[in-house]
Specification:
- By secondary structure, this protein is an alpha/beta fold.
- The strands form 3 sheets. The protein has a 5-stranded mixed beta barrel. Strands 2-3 form a two-stranded antiparallel sheet.
- The termini are far apart.
- The chain is built from 11 helices and 13 strands.
- It is globular, with a radius of gyration of 20 Å.
Length: about 290
């Protein structure tokens, strides 16, 4: 049985949908209350059994590296002030996983960002977690995908049903009925028009892929947005090996656009006992004033 031991987190995008806040701050570092988005994603990878992670960064992304590095001055200050709980939390951040970094010199798209990690991955299967997509289920979505991959030894894409009006925002898959939780993909389209979408099943930022994808990405021509699209390379992969979809039922959050980011903060805050009561009351007051 081939084990999935490594993950790639593409985090080189410019975050243009969230400007001007992302002019100097990586969108992956935008906080969900008191924790940056990318930390949630790395924690999901770790909970799924991943020990080695490579983050593909770009210009202006050094804050990501700083966050997962040791901060001796901060830790010494917290220790001297007796703030042991938060000190332990800060130390745990730098010990989450073996985290590596590589720069995507020119933003050529998601497919190219993943291709940049080829030497780190080598000739073995790997996971991909997009740096601006959070997924919440009872157990990590990626963990189940890895379990299924180790049974079928074929690439698996996490998908979720979306409203028809939203299909143009995502890569969309067309599937055949399968056995159990996996569906056989026979077509993928990147950000189709509503009338061209083969289904309402959208790719939602989680993949477990075979290393064959690197060969295909190396030859992949630019597609939608004049970028090298992972979805296009996966479409080509169908000629060589099976690719499956796993439909997940949990909540997904796109922090790469303004409304999605705001909804994520509110939903995460409402689940916290230290914030829930006051926040709900505050929102009720706001709604009553606006109606």
């Amino acid at each position: 049985m081939v084990k999935v031991r490594k993950a790639v987190i593409p985090a080189a995008g410019l975050g243009t949908r969230l400007l001007p806040s992302t002019k100097a701050m990586p969108k992956e570092m935008l906080p969900i209350i008191d924790k940056p988005t990318i930390q949630y994603i790395i924690e999901e990878a770790v909970e799924s059994g991943i020990k080695d992670i490579i983050i593909v960064t770009g210009k202006g992304k050094k804050a990501i590296e700083d966050h997962f590095d040791t901060s001796m001055l901060l830790e010494e200050t917290l220790k001297n002030k007796g703030k042991i709980t938060i000190l332990n939390e800060m130390q745990n951040i730098s010990q989450l996983a073996n985290i590596h970094y590589i720069r995507q010199g020119v933003p050529k798209g998601l497919g190219h960002a993943i291709w940049c990690a080829r030497n780190f991955i080598g000739n073995e299967p790997f996971a991909v977690l997009l740096g601006d997509t959070l997924i919440k289920e009872k157990k990590p979505c990626l963990k189940e995908m890895i379990r299924l991959f180790e049974e079928c030894n074929s690439s698996i894409i996490g998908v979720k049903r979306v409203n028809e009006s939203d299909v143009s925002k995502y890569g969309i898959v067309d599937v055949k009925q399968g056995n159990g939780p996996l569906f056989n993909i026979h077509n993928l389209v990147e950000k189709p028009k509503i009338e061209d979408a083969p289904s309402d099943l959208a790719i939602f930022g989680r993949y477990v892929l075979t290393p064959k994808i690197f060969d295909l990405l190396a030859k992949q021509e630019r597609g939608v947005g004049n970028e090298i699209q992972l979805t296009d390379a996966l479409q080509t992969m169908l000629k060589y090996e099976s690719v499956y979809a796993q439909i997940f039922e949990g909540e997904s959050y796109d922090i790469g656009e303004k409304l999605g980011y705001l909804k994520t903060i509110i939903e995460f805050a409402i689940e916290r006992e230290d914030l829930k009561e006051d926040l709900v009351q505050f929102m009720k007051n706001i709604v009553s004033k606006k109606t």
